[in-house]
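sanity check this:
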Amino acid sequence: MAHELVLITGGTGFIGYAVVVRALQQGYRLRLAIRSENDVEKIKTASSCQKHAASIEFIVVKDMTKQGAFVEAMNDVSFVIHVASPTGGPDKMHYSTSKVLAYNATQDFLREQKPNFSVINIMPSIVLGRHELRTTPEEINGPNATNSFLLAAILGEGMPIPLPGNTVHVDDVAMVHIAALDPKVEGNQDFVLSGGEVQGIRWDDATEIVRRRFPEAVGKGLLPLKGSTETKVCKVDGRKAERVFGFRYMGFEEQVVSVVGQYLDAVEHHSKQ
């Protein structure tokens, strides 16, 4: 399977970039569908991609909603990993809605067209973890970054509305995307990805984790820990993916350490400039 050509959309996004890195590590050749030529340098200069530059090619797809937008991009590919959303920007509600509509459209297509290929839908809960392409504190805690859900109570007052207590590390999400390319994995099935217990996590548990794992930063006031985010209990069972792909989800503490560690690295880097 290694060295086969994979088309990936959304490769500069949070999940998409993690998928790109994982695919390169597993030996795949990649064709990345990008919206702008500006995205090429973002990928090429990222430390995780530099040594794999020969395995990456790019194709510009400015409007992915246009009929036939990906026809050229799909020439000679063995797999397609479609992570991109036609809705960009900070409106998370529109983004989530676009994902639901895409899922429903996929199911309709499979039922009506009966194509000679299979589709695996991978549906993560709230995704947390490092994002190599975000390098400033403002980007890491930006309005369109799910990591800001976690950082809200650590840096400020917390989220204004309750959040579902269901999270998953971005590296686990990327791993499953690539593992699902294995032809031994049965096609036309869904995987919900959510770490921890079925009942989920408590967002305010992050406060104690941060206090214990980053005492120096807390003492300096870099992590005020004065906020609170109410947790909405939603039971989500992600254990099917663990069974099929033979792994264990990273826990909430690993997710918190990943996000806060990157934030502090960015603060330190920019304080020296």
Remarks:
- Residues 9 and 82 are 5 Å apart (CA to CA).
